[in-house]
Amino acid sequence: MKALLIARRELSAYLRTLSGYVVIAVILALNGLFFNAYALGGASKRSAEVLSQFFYYSSGFTIVASVFISMRLLAEERQTGTLPLLYSSPLRDRDIVLGKFLAGLAFLSLYVLCTLYMPVLVLVNGKVSFGHVAAGYLGLLLLGSASLAVGTFGSALARNQLLAAITSAVMLVALILCWLLARITEQPLADVFSAMSLWNQHFPPFQSGLIHVRDVVYYLVVTYVALFAATRVLEARRWR
Amino acid sequence: MIQVEGLTKYYGEHAAIRDLAFTIGQGEVIGFLGLNGAGKSTTLKVLGCVLLPTAGRVVIDGHDVVSNAHEVRQRIGYLPDVPPLYEEMTVGEYLTYVARLRGVTARDTTARVGEAEEKTGLREVDGELISTLSHGYRQRVGVAQALVHKPALLILDEPTSGLDPRQIVEMRDVIRGLKGTHTVLVSSHILPEISQTCDRLLIIHKGTLVAQGTEEELGRKMGGGGSIELEVRGDRARALEVLKPFGAVDVDRAADGVLSLTLRASPDERPRVAQAVVGAGLELLRLDQGAGQLESIFLRLTHGQEVRA
Q1: Cα separation of B42 and B50, whole Å?
Q2: Is A36's Cβ below 8 Å from some Cβ in B?
Q3: Which neighbouring-strand residues pair with B184?
Q4: For A234, which of A93, A177, B47, B200 could close a Cys bridge (C-beta 3.0–4.6 Å)?
């Protein structure tokens, strides 16, 4: 499986260069600060509420992390001139995209894993249901996977990593802001925009420990569509 | 091995190559020669399945590069103009990765990487990070990645660019060592390398193929019998008049009363040229055999263009 080969190389590149760790460290620090200030702070709350707040803030940081993790995926290959190596090897374009995406997802999972200390802290001082934590983390991973796929698409489009990050961020913000469009449009358009929104309708159930099939399907569909688009971009690039 | 017909590639409105046609046989070492921007890299990118052509047909080992690219890719090794290297990997890791990517089985990989390192003289840097390598070594790693999976066809885009003279000689030896086991297509804008390593030459200029053949064939076709370079002090008109009977004369430079001339005539004519010049009362400062035959052919084919060595 060529995609796994690409994924393994990409992941080892993440682990060997400093930039990946810097991204994880900075975002983890911010996530921790928000947890301390907002989820734990204020009036006394029930554990489930703290946990819900933790997932609320973590979801935002997961999106940010996925932008920074995905920006290098394809844009860096283009920047350093290694893309011809992949293009001239017996690979399908989807293997390239899938391999890159999987490496990014593995690295993002490492970040998500690092946040686990916060629910553990809640557990120490209160009562936490395992199901709630599991559902929340499933949500984080699904949201991360969708954002990372959009980031992979952005990385395929852009000439360098900075442009890739900007492109991906713009696309993600647009997806998130669909819920604002939903508020100002009439039915049935409002429902469509609301359902399209990356966060508004689909993440809160996970946050409070609920797993709905439609939310899972939504994130998987976004992942698939974005990766498919990235594949087409790679194909199209051969004509230029 | 390679059949190219009517190959054309446009970048927007600009045609990088137009209506190229050539064939390359099994086991040949072909030199692809042209000035910078002549369309060499574009042609090689199409052959390397990195770029799709606007029009025309390219068949490699019986497979079309557009409709059957996957089959073609299993048979080629391609070194782009910039070696595609991952800085954070060691040479050994990198070659192993490329070998696996190109379909070498896990069992054969170590042996193949070893062979490739042997051929390109990379044995001693196997464990070093690519980011720490000198330009010459990086270029060699580029060649090694192209041949690690023993492809039938090797496409090397300017493997000697940016190397110092000693490294150029070493690279030439590497390419010569590939003769017999691979079909090789090497591009260059530096003439001596091509003439010394290749069986046959394709000369491309402004996107079209202007000549092809062995060095002798090209020489005969162009009616070239070499050239003589000379420097003469004295009257310009007189000098040209005296040299005219020997062949066409180009004035390369004229400064402070000294003329630098190129005479299209066999170098065997030198004694008679010297006599004629001195006999006409001109001062002969230098008399030399002109640049290599190939070089003069190349310069004539690409006449009127600035030539950057």
Answers
A1: 9
A2: no
A3: B29, B154
A4: A93
| Residue B79 φ then ψ, to 5° | -110, 110
The answer to whether residue A64 is domain-embedded is yes
CATH number for B232: 3.30.70
Q: DSSP 3-state assignment of B309?
A: coil
Same domain? For B204 and B244 the reply is no
Residue B82: closest CA among B164, B161, B188:
B161
Distances (CA, A) of B143 to A66, B71, B187: 36, 21, 13
Q: Any residues with CB less than 8 A from the CB of A235 and at least 6 apart, and which?
A: A93
Evaluate whether residue B306 is within a structural domain.
Answer: no
* Contact status of B98 with chain A (Cβ, < 8 Å): yes
Residues of B in contact with A13 (CB under 8 A): 86, 88-89
Give CA separation, B281 vs A167, A240, B196, B238, B269, in Å: 75, 62, 41, 9, 19
Residue B57, beta-bridge partner list: B5
| Residue B248 exposed, middle or buried by CB count within 10 Å (0-12, 13-18, 19+) | exposed
Domain match, B106 and B246 both? no
* Strand-by-strand arrangement of the B63-64 sheet: B14-24, B2-11, B55-60, B63-64
Give the nearest partner residue to B73 out of A83, A90, A238, using CB atoms: A90
pLDDT for res B308: 39
**Predicted local distance difference test score (pLDDT) of residue B309:** 36
A154: amino acid identity, one letter: G
Q: Is A90 within 8 Å of B82 when comparing Cβ atoms?
A: no
Q: Residue A65: enclosing H or E segment and its boundaries?
A: helix A47-70
- For A16, the token pair is 């060997």
Which residues in A131-162 are b (16+ Cβ under 10 Å) and which e?
ebbebbbebbbbbbbbbbbbbbbbbbbbeebe
Q: Which residues 6+ apart lie within 8 Å of B70 measured at CB?
A: A90, A92
With CB atoms and an 8 Å threshold, state whether B86 touches A13. yes
Question: Could you give the ipTM of this predicted complex?
Answer: 0.90
Is the distance from CB of A68 to CB of A22 less than 8 angstroms?
no
Instruction: Tell me if the bond preceding B267 is cis, omega within 30° of 0.
Output: no
Residue B249 and residue B132 in one domain: no
Q: Is B55 on the interface with A (CB under 8 A)?
A: no
Q: Which residues pair with B262 in a beta bridge?
A: B229, B250
Question: pLDDT tens digit string along B64-73?
Answer: 999 999 999 9
Tens of pLDDT, residue by residue over B141-150, are 999 999 999 9
Q: How many other CB atoms are found less than 10 A from the CB of residue B240?
A: 14
User: How many whole angstroms separate alpha carbon B211 and alpha carbon B209?
Assistant: 6
Is B182:B171 a contact under the CB 8 Å cutoff? Answer: no
Domain of B277, in residue numbers:
228-291
pLDDT at residue B303 greater than cutoff 80: no
pLDDT one-digit tens code per residue, B152-186: 999 999 998 888 888 888 888 888 888 888 999 99
Chain position carrying tokens 């045609």:
B15
Condensed to tens digits (0 to 9), the pLDDT of residues A94-124 reads: 999 999 999 999 999 999 999 999 999 988 8
